Amino acid sequence: MKPIRILLVEDNPDHAELAEMALLQEKDVGEVVWVESGYDCLKRLDGNGDGKFDLIVLDYSLPGIDGLETLRKINKDGHDIPAIMVTGHGDEAVATEAIKMGAYDYIVKTGDYLTTLPVVTVKAWKNHRTDRENVELRENIEQNYLDTLAILISVIEAKDCYTRGHSEMVSKYAFAVALKMGLPAEETEDIRTAGLLHDIGKIAIDREILVKPGTLTADEKKSIETHCDYGVKILRPGAFLRRILPIVHQHHERFDGKGYPQGLKGDEINPGARILAVADSFDAMTSTRAYRSAMPLEKALTEIERGSGTQFDPDVVEAFLIVVKGSGFGVQGTKVNIEHPTSNIE
Ligand SMILES: [Fe+2]
């Protein structure tokens, strides 16, 4: 294990020296850097070019800002470093507050404080490291799952050369619109994922119907419409995909209530699904299909504008038009290049 580098925040030099000596008794502890105040702690964390700390031992009683306020600022600055709060005897309320604010543990300065400090510190670091590894592991599993689903999408799109790359384009358009509309980061990511997977239910639809050049019969239309339900059935086992299920299920709903599968209206429709509806229609219009050629970009934009308030949510249309017409989005043929939408969450 890499030696632990600790930032010790303690205003009393004698206490600091004793704590440092106690901590260095632990073989896993490599270095203890001592600072006297919360301000100095924050300055160190903001990086003075002296490397990253693995853990903070933070005294509650400090000059200037106290330990709790320091902890609040550490959290606000987004430092992913476990902190242990050291409180005086009788400061249990402070300890509770510190835990609520995300401190990893607390130690009360009692008689055996110098014995417990190194033990608690190393344990906190090991637990934190395990937590982080678990998060990484879960993220890897989720990514692998998504990659597998993306392969499934490629299989669907490979069945019909006209829809190749459609899901990826829908995802890019929808993501850019969600960013433009200022949706929360998590929702924006969900919309991007839903864009990639929205038509996964088509795997259950007869290929002959999917690629049929002529007009569809009523039964064939009904059959295609089931892809929204199938999409949910296919994605439901992926626990981390639960949030995108309504988006996938509702991406063919219309703002005026005339869509499918449920005929939802206006705000009843999931906001992500309202975004996907525009992105999906736009990419479909500007792509060549078995039964028609691609529509010129300007005409497709006019069609989207025309659908505002009937087929589409007007707020989404407004954002979409800004995204497509706005600077930074070059037009390539009938496709809009949105390879690099401005993102603050990537
Ligand atoms: Fe669809």
Tell me what portion of residues adopts beta-strand conformation: 5-15%
The CATH architecture of the largest domain can be given as Orthogonal Bundle
Number of strands: 7
Query: Nearest-angstrom radius of gyration?
Result: 28 Å
The biggest beta sheet, please?
A: 5 strands, parallel
- Largest beta sheet: strand ordering: 2-1-3-4-5
Average pLDDT confidence is 87
Enumerate the distinct ligands: fe (ii) ion
CATH class of the largest domain: Mainly Alpha
Q: How would you classify the helix and strand content by structural class?
A: alpha/beta
- Number of helical segments with 4 or more residues: 14
Number of domains: 2
Taking pLDDT < 50 over at least 5 consecutive residues as the criterion, the unreliable ranges are: 327-333, 339-346
Taking the alpha carbons of the first and last residues, their distance comes to 30 Å
Q: By CATH's scheme, which homologous superfamily of the largest domain applies?
A: Hypothetical protein af1432
CATH topology category name of the largest domain: Hypothetical protein af1432
Helix-residue proportion: 40-55%
Question: Helices and strands, in N-to-C order?
Answer: EHEHEHEHEHHHHHHHHHHEE
